[in-house]
C-alpha cells in the first residue's frame, strides 16, 4: 500500500511541478517583454531582467493555487486515462486513501506558498520596485506618475521611490489649510531617516497666499513624520504582495489614523484564507477526476480545469471590490467562493464514493 501511496504522490507532485514550470515560464517571458517597453534613463535591458527575476517569488506565490489545482487534475487524470485508478481501487484501496495521497503534495505546495508569501515575496518585491523607480530617475521628477501617495493630517505626501535602507527619492509635500486651500508645496530630491526624523535634502518650498507667492530653497530640512521605514516598506508594494503581518500592521495603522483600510483588510483575508482556498480547489480537482471527468480526454480535462479555476478567481475578484464598495466584511467575500467550491467538491466526492 505504501508503494501505491508514493506512486500517487509522485505522479501528482510531478504534474504540479510541470504546470508551475510551464505557467511561470510563459509569465516571465511576457513580463520581460512588457518591461522592455519601460526602458529609459538607467532602466535598460539588464535592469528589466533583474526586475523580472526579483518579482519571481511573488509570481510563484500567485500561481501556486492554480498549480496545485491543475497539477492534481492532470496527475490523477493521467492515472484515470490509463486505468491505473481503476486497478488501484480494484486492489482494495479506498477513494479516501487515494484522495489523501493526492492531497499530500498539494499540502506541501500550500505550506511552500505560506513561506514564500510571508518571508520571501514581500522583501524581494520591495527591492524590485525601489530599484526600478530609482533607475527611472525618481529623484528628478516632481510627483511622478508612479510612486506612493499618503496623507498625514493636513499634508498629502508623494514619494517617487522608497529604498529598503530608509532612503526616499523625490519627496513631495502638499500642505492644506483647514478650509482645504493649498498653503505650500515642497519638493526634496532625497530623504534620509535618522532614527526619529527624516532629513530632506535639496528642498524647494513654494508658499501660497491670497496676495502673493514665494519660493525658498534649502539644502537640508528636518521633517517630523510618523512614517517610519517600516511603515513605508509596506506602502512601496501593492496590498496583495505584502505579508500577512505587514497587512495587519498597516491596516490597523490606517484605522487609527481614520483612513480607509478596506483594501488592506481585503488583501489580509485573501492571504489568510489562501491555504484553505487552495485545499478546497484541490478537493474539487480530485472530485472531478473521480466524477464527471473520469473518462474524458486530457485536453478536455485541462480545459475544464481552467474554466473552473477562472470562475473561482473571478468570483473572488468580483466579491472583493463589492465588499469595499458596499462595506460588508471582506472575509465573507473570500469565504463565499471557497464554501461554494467545498460544497460542490463534497457532493461530487460523495457520488463518486
Description:
The structure is a single chain. With 353 residues, the protein is an alpha+beta fold. Helices cover 62% and strands 16% of the residues. It folds into 2 domains: 224 residues, no CATH class; 97 residues, no CATH class. Helix 3 runs antiparallel to helix 5. The longest helix is centred in the first third of the chain and has 41 residues.
The largest beta-sheet arranges its strands as: 1-2-3-4-5-6
Give the low-confidence spans.
Answer: none
Total number of distinct structural domains: 2
Count of DSSP-assigned helices: 11
Instruction: Provide the β-strand percentage band.
Output: 15-25%
Give the termini separation: 19 Å
Give the beta-strand count.
6
Rg on CA atoms, Å: 25 Å
Largest sheet: 6 strands, antiparallel
Global morphology? elongated
Note the run of SSEs as H and E.
HHHHHEEEEEEHHHHHH
Proportion of residues in helical segments: 55-70%
Mean model confidence by pLDDT: 84
Derived from helix and strand composition plus strand pairing, the structural class reads alpha+beta
List keywords for this structure.
alpha+beta, 353 residues, 16% strand, six-stranded antiparallel beta sheet
Brief digest:
This protein has 353 residues and is an alpha+beta fold.
Amino acid at each position: 500500500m505504501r508503494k501505491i501511496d508514493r506512486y500517487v504522490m509522485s505522479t501528482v507532485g510531478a504534474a504540479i511541478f510541470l504546470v508551475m514550470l510551464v505557467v511561470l515560464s510563459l509569465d516571465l517571458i511576457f513580463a520581460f517583454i512588457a518591461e522592455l517597453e519601460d526602458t529609459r534613463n538607467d532602466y535598460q535591458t539588464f535592469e528589466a531582467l533583474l526586475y523580472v527575476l526579483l518579482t519571481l517569488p511573488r509570481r510563484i506565490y500567485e500561481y501556486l493555487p492554480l498549480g496545485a489545482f491543475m497539477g492534481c487534475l492532470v496527475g490523477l487524470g493521467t492515472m484515470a486515462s490509463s486505468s491505473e485508478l481503476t486497478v488501484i481501487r480494484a486492489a482494495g484501496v479506498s477513494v479516501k486513501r487515494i484522495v489523501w495521497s493526492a492531497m499530500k503534495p498539494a499540502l506541501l505546495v500550500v505550506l511552500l506558498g505560506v513561506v514564500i508569501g510571508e518571508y520571501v515575496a514581500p522583501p524581494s518585491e520591495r527591492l524590485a520596485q525601489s530599484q526600478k523607480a530609482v533607475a527611472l530617475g525618481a529623484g528628478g521628477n516632481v510627483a511622478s506618475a508612479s510612486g506612493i501617495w499618503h496623507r498625514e493630517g493636513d499634508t498629502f505626501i508623494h514619494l517617487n521611490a522608497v529604498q529598503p535602507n530608509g532612503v526616499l527619492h523625490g519627496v513631495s509635500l502638499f500642505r492644506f489649510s483647514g478650509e482645504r486651500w493649498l498653503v505650500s508645496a515642497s519638493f526634496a530630491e532625497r530623504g534620509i531617516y535618522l532614527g526619529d526624523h527624516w532629513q530632506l535634502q535639496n528642498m524647494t518650498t513654494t508658499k501660497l497666499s491670497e496676495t502673493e507667492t514665494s519660493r525658498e530653497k534649502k539644502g537640508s530640512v528636518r521633517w517630523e513624520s510618523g512614517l517610519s521605514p517600516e511603515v513605508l516598506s509596506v506602502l512601496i508594494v501593492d496590498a496583495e504582495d505584502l505579508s500577512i503581518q505587514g497587512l495587519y500592521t498597516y491596516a490597523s495603522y490606517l484605522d487609527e489614523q481614520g483612513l480607509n483600510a478596506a483594501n488592506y483588510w481585503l488583501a489580509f483575508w485573501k492571504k489568510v484564507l489562501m491555504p484553505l482556498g487552495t485545499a478546497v480547489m484541490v478537493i474539487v480537482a480530485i472530485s472531478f477526476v473521480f466524477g464527471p471527468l473520469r473518462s474524458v480526454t486530457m485536453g478536455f480535462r485541462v480545459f475544464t480545469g481552467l474554466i473552473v479555476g477562472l470562475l473561482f478567481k473571478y468570483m473572488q475578484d468580483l466579491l472583493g471590490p463589492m465588499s469595499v464598495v458596499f462595506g460588508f466584511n471582506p472575509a465573507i467575500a473570500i469565504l463565499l467562493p471557497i464554501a461554494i467550491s467545498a460544497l460542490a467538491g463534497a457532493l461530487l466526492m460523495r457520488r463518486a464514493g
